[in-house]
Design a protein that fits this description.
Helix content is about 65%, strand content about 5%. By secondary structure, it is mainly alpha-helical. Helix 1 packs across helix 5 (about 95-105) and helix 4 crosses helix 5. Bound molecules: heme C.
């Protein structure tokens, strides 16, 4: 009985993680890839114009801190009056965390 319950919990946990990972990919490709590029290197027209960094670079990844990344995705990023990145809309805190995990995987 206990064993069965445990197994159910493990399986649901795995399912949730999997959905979030797929979710993050879908959100990323829809909302982020136009600047950061599908592979994270920022090599897009908009990304180059706005100065998106190369997130396949281990050094760039090391400079990216989870708490700052979270804040930027949630609240957006400005440079003076210029908006580099808009605050995200309609995504949950958990989705933001999943997006950061997704971006971490760009590192070569
Ligand atoms: C309009 C272009 C644009 C879009 C769309 C965009 N970003 Fe950005 N983002 C930037 C620019 C420019 C920067 C600043 C340079 C850099 O860090 O690459 C940035 C910075 C970041 C950072 C770095 C924060 C730090 O640690 O300094 C993260 C994380 C990030 N973006 C995630 C995302 C995610 C996730 C999405 C989609 C929900 C997204 N961005 C959509 C342009 C964009």
């Amino acid at each position: 009985m206990i064993k069965k319950l445990f197994l159910t919990l493990v399986l649901t946990g795995a399912a949730v993680t999997l959905t979030q990972a797929q979710d993050a990919k879908a959100v990323y490709e829809k909302d982020c890839a136009k600047c950061h590029a599908a592979n994270g290197n920022g090599d897009t027209k908009m990304g180059k114009k706005l100065g998106a960094k190369d997130y396949t670079d281990a050094k760039v990844q090391a400079d990216m801190k989870d708490d700052k990344a979270f804040k930027v995705i949630k609240e957006g990023l400005k440079e003076g009056d210029k908006t580099l990145m808009k605050p995200s809309e309609g995504i949950t805190d958990d989705q933001i965390k999943a997006l950061i995990t997704y971006m971490r995987a760009f590192k070569k």
